[in-house]
Amino acid sequence: MDVAATLSTAGTSPGFLHRVTIDLGERSYAIDIGAEVLGDPGTWAGLPRAATAAIVTNDVVAPLYLSRLRSALAPHFPRVLDIVLPDGEAHKDWPTLNRIFDALLTHACDRKTVLFALGGGVIGDMTGFAAACYQRGVPFVQVPTTLLAQVDSSVGGKTAINHPLGKNMIGAFYQPLRVVCDLATLATLPAREFSAGLAEVIKYGPIADPAFLDWVEDRMEALRAREPSALAYAVRRSCEIKAAVVGQDERESGLRAILNFGHTFGHAIEAGLGYGAWLHGEAVGCGMVMAATLSQRLGRVSADYVQRLTRLIAAAGLPTRAPRLADDNAARYLALMRVDKKAEAGAIRFIVVDEQGHAELCPVPDAVVAEVIDACCV
Amino acid sequence: MDVAATLSTAGTSPGFLHRVTIDLGERSYAIDIGAEVLGDPGTWAGLPRAATAAIVTNDVVAPLYLSRLRSALAPHFPRVLDIVLPDGEAHKDWPTLNRIFDALLTHACDRKTVLFALGGGVIGDMTGFAAACYQRGVPFVQVPTTLLAQVDSSVGGKTAINHPLGKNMIGAFYQPLRVVCDLATLATLPAREFSAGLAEVIKYGPIADPAFLDWVEDRMEALRAREPSALAYAVRRSCEIKAAVVGQDERESGLRAILNFGHTFGHAIEAGLGYGAWLHGEAVGCGMVMAATLSQRLGRVSADYVQRLTRLIAAAGLPTRAPRLADDNAARYLALMRVDKKAEAGAIRFIVVDEQGHAELCPVPDAVVAEVIDACCV
Fold this sequence. Notes:
- Chains A, B: InterPro entries: Dehydroquinate_synthase (IPR050071), DHQ_synth_AroB (IPR016037), DHQ_synth_fam (IPR030963), DHQS/DOIS_N (IPR030960), DHQS_C (IPR056179).
- Chains A, B: Its EC number is 4.2.3.4.
- The structure is a homodimer.
- The two termini of chain A are about 35 Å apart.
- Chain A has helices at about 5, 60-75, 95-105, 120-135, 145-155, 190-210, 210-225, 230-250, 265-275, 280-295, 305-315, 330-335, 365-375, and strands at about 20, 30-35, 50-60, 80-85, 115-120, 140-145, 160-165, 165-175, 180, 350-355, 360-365.
- Chain A contains 13 helices and eleven strands.
- The interface between A and B is large, with 38 and 38 residues.
């Protein structure tokens, strides 16, 4: 399926307060993109009435934005609670998720309570999953404060926690009421996390839009300098592509898997090193080099294309050489990838790309994968 | 809304291998009712292809039916796993749920894996919730082996685990592929559990079908003697009523709450005594006496009706006097009920009935509820 063909062709000028709509029937919602919008009470008009809003955030984001969001929500909700979790992928687990349930139940929150996920991908995934499960489902709003969350994880309704035996293995497809991307929050993002977010921006070019790949290459310096117009377009275009894909395949029965380009290798890196050692975006950056190398072995892209993508990933400040995970390194990678959610009947499947912006899910023989691992590891 | 009017009017003759369909658009499914069907490979034809079937059951049901179900599934699935959990409501918690995830991940089960819930309400609720969450959703089949599960909990897609601060507080609406009620399994059910199931059978009369209430009264002796034709009709009519209600309101935005007649009081009893002290059906039986008494205080039913229902609940072998939970007994009940999922903005809401088979959700002042508690407690 040609995703690019289904995209709107709105020009490349940055649009403050741009709205991207994700079309999922009665579960459709808006992704609102703007600067300094999080602290504006007007941003939060039109949400369902409820006795309580509960902001879920972490101890790094809370000092920066919590009081601003709380004040902006106060005119709309009689009670605004906050639930501050420890920061980091290492805490994306059941005990931490349960702190959300404990807080909601201790405060007798009913099933109209609206949860707000204020933070990066981990907060968004956990808050979304908590919303999916609390009293069998309460509404929630994504307020992503990292680049990765704004361009990828907050959009599309994938929620989850990790299990010791696999990343994001316990979760739900559960859509938010709304996503609000405040570009101003990106100014406070540490460089390493910003680069991690660029991995997901880069991803959209190879899988769906060669012109966007060109644009990202041209504007990488402006992006890393966090130039507002560059950020605005990167977030908007990423959300447009993601919305087009998710709108066609909400529950990943097919097409949606292309958004996992680089992720099968990336998940193995994250699990193999222990969650949190590499950031998710770092693992995905490196994983895209591996997936491009695999695409080349399968005759779908040239060596030049692999080099071009590798240079771009390096220019984003991301690792391009994969870590060794064990003495029997390829076997370890393969074992970790066999629990990937795309695996079926024991066969690992990979997203491979061509140079025209098409991607597809492919089972690949272990021997070919092992060669790629050997070629890409330090 | 008049549920009875939407029901099919198929006569009262027992139908072996009767099929009740629950109409939920693309999530529609069949409830198949028969005797000795669980061990027949033909019963399991037509399910989706998958590499693995995983039977989740408990240590009481496993010795009775696990090997029979495993043999019947073997022609359909290359691999049949079993996951045997400890029995009882006290284990309807996260650590036990996680044993399902551990087993599925240890055996590298992919997201086409079909889970089979073989057991009562606890197994059905936990297996359904595990299916809702594992890799963000895998298909599952309900194989209820208790009366309570056959007439109520296996139908309609409510899944959950308990939280120390409230029953069924963490869960999902997630529909099975199919429900298979094998009436033969009811022969091995302990008397106390059988009576608990009768509470949910009794429930359908007051909320939707006065003629069914008459029938249950007439046939209570035959039911308790587990006469096959009486069982077949009780299961079938209960499923028909439940299917009609759920088909109109899958996610309990309104009508579906009527299925909770007696449950608000019942949940307080269960939580107040500690989960597992009373069976769920016992608490619901006693809760219906309380809810009927409340309906009388509100002028909706006569004292005769309350007595009639009380006698029927007693005849089913269920408690009709509520336990004292604390020195400040009514306050304790009220505090426990305030976390009920039907509560909204701190107001507890109750299902009240009239004598014509209509039920509705009503907020009730605490003082009135406290009087009912005082009147109904030992």
